[in-house]
């Protein structure tokens, strides 16, 4: 995603809606109730006993359900919010996808609670181009109350965009799996990063090899990496683009806490903010049905 | 419970039934969550899971692990690759911080296309602090 502010007249107009209310004194269509809670739990396979019985609470993550307009539309939505959405529709940004949801629960909701809410338009981004299409992110913040008492807050971000059909990215190349490294990839499939260790002299090694570089012994076992590491070195790939990859991206040489290094992607941080010494933590990225790879996420300090 | 603890992974088969049932249970009638033809017109290959269902599954993953006494305080998620029917989402979680009886758990949900969801869940365990 990248800002494209030049000539973004619509963006400037949309910005004027920041701070405007999107819903004033909205009311939930139904009080918090056991049947809707049960439907939710059945749909999601949630068997938590806290959501059933005489002392039941509503699943906290169900918060937004109580303020949804449903097929009969929203109650309490302001003209400002309708105008904002209308401007986007008129500009061809007719499709919506939700991208972020941040909820804070001050107390549980229980059957019988009647929810009221106020929503403000917190932020409208400039024009952004995403894989789905070009559009604008709209962030709202909703304060939810019961009998005037705050019970929760809910920040929600949608992308309203002009849809464009797109070809899927080709699949990531397959790793070469052989007798020497099959154990490594079996570990990755189980979300475990296994390091070879020489049972004769104790030296850890990576990548996997049939013998020890330190003493030559062919005998080894494995230790599971803790997942902690730092960026020992890195490069940023800009060009040429390689099928299945989306440059620019950072490729790091990661020094694991166990003392070995491995090449992997550094994620969770813009490519141009990767630095030598950056603390990272192991994560497993599922590329498709058949392939999972270890990657390293920057740890915020 | 200590920082660095990992939660056992939870595998969620992303069925068409789960997507539609989750959308309707959350009163989300956007066509892209139940009508494949209209979803395709909007550039998606098929229907996809709505954010409320993902939010609920992330909450369920954490409360399944910590038990019914666990109280969710905050759930903050960001969506990436969509959950389409026929895929599988693997939820994994790591305890990032512990302060008294409250933990912050980082949750990642990976599917066949990449990372569907990343987020943090703040949860209080009344018995852990007692």
Automatic annotation (TrEMBL), chain A:
Keyword Transmembrane helix: no
Name of one Pfam family that matches: FAS1_DH_region
Organism name: Streptomyces capoamus
Key words of the record: DNA-binding
FAS1-like dehydratase domain: residues covered: 26-153
UniProt cross-references to PANTHER family, sorted A to Z: BLR3430 PROTEIN (PTHR34075)
Gene3D superfamilies linked: 6.10.30.10, Hotdog Thioesterase
Keyword Methyltransferase included in the entry's annotation: no
GO molecular function ontology, one term from the record: DNA binding
Chain ranges of the ChsH2 rubredoxin-like zinc ribbon domain: 185-220
Protein name: DNA-binding protein
Domain ChsH2 C-terminal OB-fold: 223-285
Top-level taxon of the source organism: Bacteria
Alphabetized InterPro entries for the sequence: ChsH2_C, ChsH2_Znr, FAS1-like_DH_region, HotDog_dom_sf, NA-bd_OB-fold, Thioester_dehydratase-like
From TrEMBL, chain B:
Family matches, as InterPro entries: HotDog_dom_sf, MaoC-like_dom
Signal sequence interval, chain numbering: none
Pfam families: MaoC_dehydratas (PF01575)
Gene3D superfamilies: Hotdog Thioesterase
Residue ranges annotated for the MaoC-like domain, each copy included: 10-101
Top-level taxonomic group: Bacteria
Family, per entry: Belongs to the enoyl-CoA hydratase/isomerase family.
Name the UniProt record assigns to this protein: Beta-hydroxyacyl-ACP dehydratase
Species per Swiss-Prot/TrEMBL record: Streptomyces capoamus
Lineage, top ranks: Bacteria, Bacillati, Actinomycetota, Actinomycetes, Kitasatosporales
């Amino acid at each position: 995603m990248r800002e494209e502010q030049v000539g973004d007249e619509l963006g400037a107009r949309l910005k004027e809606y920041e701070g405007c209310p999107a819903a004033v004194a909205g009311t939930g269509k139904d009080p918090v109730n056991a049947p809707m809670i049960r439907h939710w739990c059945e749909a999601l396979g949630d068997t938590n006993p806290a959501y059933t019985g005489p002392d039941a609470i509503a699943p906290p993550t169900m918060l937004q359900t109580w303020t949804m307009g449903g097929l009969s539309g929203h109650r309490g939505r302001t003209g400002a919010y309708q105008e904002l959405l209308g401007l986007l529709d008129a500009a061809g940004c007719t499709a919506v996808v939700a991208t972020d949801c941040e909820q804070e629960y001050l107390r549980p909701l229980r059957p019988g609670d009647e929810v009221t809410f106020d929503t403000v338009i917190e932020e409208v981004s400039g024009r952004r181009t995403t894989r789905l299409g070009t559009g604008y992110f709209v962030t709202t913040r909703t304060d939810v109350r019961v009998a005037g008492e705050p019970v929760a807050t809910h920040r929600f971000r949608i992308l309203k965009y002009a849809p464009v059909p797109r070809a899927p990215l080709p699949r990531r190349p397959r790793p070469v799996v052989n007798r020497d490294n099959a154990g490594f990839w079996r570990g990755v499939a189980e979300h475990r990063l296994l390091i070879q260790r020489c049972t004769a002299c104790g030296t850890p090694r990576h990548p996997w090899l049939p013998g020890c570089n330190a003493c030559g012994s062919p005998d080894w076992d494995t230790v599971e990496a803790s997942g902690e590491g730092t960026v020992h070195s890195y490069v940023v790939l800009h060009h040429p683009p390689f099928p299945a990859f989306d440059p620019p991206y950072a490729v790091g040489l990661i020094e694991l806490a166990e003392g070995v290094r491995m090449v992997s992607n550094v994620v969770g941080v813009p490519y141009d903010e990767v630095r030598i010494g950056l603390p990272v933590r192991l994560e497993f990225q599922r590329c498709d049905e058949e392939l999972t790879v270890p990657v390293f996420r920057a740890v915020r300090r | 419970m200590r920082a660095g603890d990992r939660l056992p992974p939870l595998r969620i088969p992303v069925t068409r039934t789960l997507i539609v049932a989750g959308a309707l249970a959350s009163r989300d009638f956007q066509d892209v969550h139940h009508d494949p033809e209209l979803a395709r017109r909007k550039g998606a290959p098929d229907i996809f899971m709505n954010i409320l269902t993902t939010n609920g599954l992330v909450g369920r993953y954490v409360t399944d692990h910590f038990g019914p006494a666990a109280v969710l305080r905050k759930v903050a998620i960001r969506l990436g690759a969509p959950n389409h029917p026929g895929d599988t989402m693997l939820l994994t979680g790591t305890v990032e911080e512990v302060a008294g009886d409250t933990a912050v758990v980082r949750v990642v949900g990976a599917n066949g296309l990449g990372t569907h969801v990343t987020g943090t869940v703040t949860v209080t365990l009344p018995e852990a602090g007692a």
